[in-house]
Request: fold
Amino acid sequence: MPVVGSVALSLGLGFSILTILILAFYLRTNDYRLYLTGQRSALGVSVLAIIATLVLINELLRSNFNVDYVAHYTSLETPWLYKFSALWAGQAGSLLFWLCILAVYTIIVIFLYRNRHRQLMPWILIVLTSVQLFFYILINFITNPFEPTSANFVVANGNGLNPLLQNVTMALHPPTLYLGFVGFSIPFAFAIAALITKETNPLWIRSIRRWSLVTWLFLSIGIILGGWWAYQELGWGGYWAWDPVENASFMPWLTATAFIHSIMIQEKKNMLRVWNMVLIILTFALSVFGTFLTRSGVLSSVHSFAESPLGPMFIDFVILILVVSTALIIWRLPVLKSRKRLESFTSRESGFLFNNVVFIVICFAVFWGTIFPIISEAVRGTKITVGPPFFNQVNVPIGLLLLFLTGVGPLLAWRRTSKQGFIKNFTIPIVAALIGLIIFFYLGFTGYVLVSMTLIVFVLVAILLEFYRGINARRRRFGENPAQALWRMIRKNRSRYGGYIVHLGIVFMFVGFVGAAFNQEKEFSLKPGESEHVGEYNFQLKNLREEERLNHYAWIADLRVSDTHGKFITNLHPEKRVYFFRNPDPDRRQPHSELDIYEGIIRDIYSVFTGIEVEKNTAYFKIMINPLVWWVWLGGYVLVFGALVSLWPSRRTI
Amino acid sequence: MASKNKFLFAIIGVVAVVVFWIYWVSVSSSADNPTLVRYLSIEELKDQNQTSRVKLGGIVKDGSIVISDSDLLDVTFLLEQGGETLPVRYYGTRPDLFKDGVEVILEGRYEDGIFIADQLQTKCASRYEGDLREENNSQSGEL
Amino acid sequence: MDLVSLLLIFLMFVGSVGFVIQPLFKRSVSFPAESDELELLKLKKRIIYRQIKELEMDYEIGNLSQDDYLLTRNELKREVAKVIEKIKSYSRKK
Reply:
């Protein structure tokens, strides 16, 4: 069977070259039959990619260890869900998975727009097929997932998946992220096609707006799931570490967020056309770059990067994208330039413009911090690492500026806001923020925390005011009750109020980020019966149990958590596990700390069972008190809900 | 034209301020706020007798891990890298994967011939690398 | 290589080649009638109407002063009048 997958991949490679040639020929001859052939060929390329992926999934589920990839990432004991998720656990599989998603998207594009965008479609298909061709080349020649096992013996069992990755969130995190990464190929293809054909009509902008929003949503969910997984599994007590892999997904998210704001200006005013082109191209390039960062091994060392041709090929591809796109933009500058220009600083447009600048600036800071170690190692020989303090210090003030703009933007009217309007809209939020400022200052908060809390109040009041006024206006006009008014108001203006709900989610997340300033952490050891204080909480080790389970051995601590007055709060049961504990070679056994978290609106109590001395009957713990983390996840849910409100199809949108 | 320039200047102003800000954060790296940390080899560390905060990478020498009798969190071991070895002391929770022969990244200070690490990370592997044959022999016996 | 795989590969090959070259045997066809131009004008009209509606809502909510409201509304109305004119002349041509 694996040979079917291999053949599908080779055929796909051949057909993708063919597609590009046929479509190029069509553009010369204008024979519509050639276009249909090219379209079908593009469809064929995509279907072949999907067939190859299905074959690999089949091999993974059947545990065919004659395939090297299957033997490396699964074992017989691996539950079927994780056998399936092994598809994106390794390099070869994840590249095939990337290709497969792009194939699905390509098929959707072909069906949705088969009778539309007549000028653009040939070029869109050429661009999408070229991207597929790149991945086909990688998969066929550099990392083939159907490579047979190199061993000259029968492989009885595979290596298995790291227990850290055996987690439902971790199984879902990469595919959502990839759906986002790959999704930006579509706006990119539209943009390139529009540049080449000098398409000035804004119909295509309409078509890609939904695409961008959907892919933005996937990217957001992927990032949030990644943070959630880190928090629940890794045991260092946080959800974001400015790790290069995290940054790789954060950078395209930033440019995509900028884009879904500024596209509104292009749709309404036909302005910022050059800028939007730049954002689309940047987002796509960053998505490819992100795949490269996570998949080429460049992060561990420049030298390991040079060992495989994969890294250089990715870099060349990114450079090719940037060079071709830049050349196209410069070539089409006369067509793109708009005659209109912004009218006033105090307009929604200029609010968006500054929000865009801030997003790009954050993206640049993150990019700089991510590649600086690589560059310094390549150029100077010594590696200089950039730690979380750099990212936090740089981004906290910029992020607060962004939060401020989140509040200001919706208060500004399109085109211009007069002085009266300005006063009218800003008075209540500013007064509320000032009252907040005084209260928080009085409570003893200072510095960034004080500024953040004040801004949170400002934005929150601004958004709620917007809802309140909308409801009131409907009540006055139609005599509806508040619930009805709210419902109808949102239904009639989905994108607008969906957007505000997303902003609300972001504000909640900021509440959670502020909480991180008050994290407490303590490491200590306990014998059964003993107790220890962390902050305002008391931890008593009631009992230390051990248990032998199906694929691991576990020590379980029963911790009783109470407040300073001795009032019971919860019981926590962190575990210390050893996987492969039957292995005679101790080095092959794998310890794993299964942590336990008591989650709450005010704070989380986070417990890690770090070690055990069996002879002394002593357990070691790391306990953290993390205030307000719950709000980050709440913000995530609200954000997803808001995006879905915006996306929910209504009859009139196409 | 004036309005266009006004916007251009405003944007350039914002960008200039932020670029300066990034630069300032980079150069203002200090002991309590280590924004940038140098990654050295053991040889460079010994040669320069570096006492500022640095990062080191290497392999934990086989059999060199000594865990204190009185406190499980207190550990010393020897770090091997580029033919040199360096004694390391670390206090705190160790990653689950920490053991002999594992690749680690340390952050801390070099003091009187000992590296006092306050951060210890093992190289995170998404899977078990290794010889399939070895894995098979050991596991097939059990199953 | 087993027989099933061989068969599958054969089917895959023949199927994709046949599927792709099939349109070449059709008699000459042309792109389905397009109305991109008209569609575009209608879209423009819709977008401007939407903007007017949003503007009215903003005014009702109280986000806009009367001067701003009237000024912008008149501008938008002039724009939409132009678009409607174009739509009319386009359908007259047909």
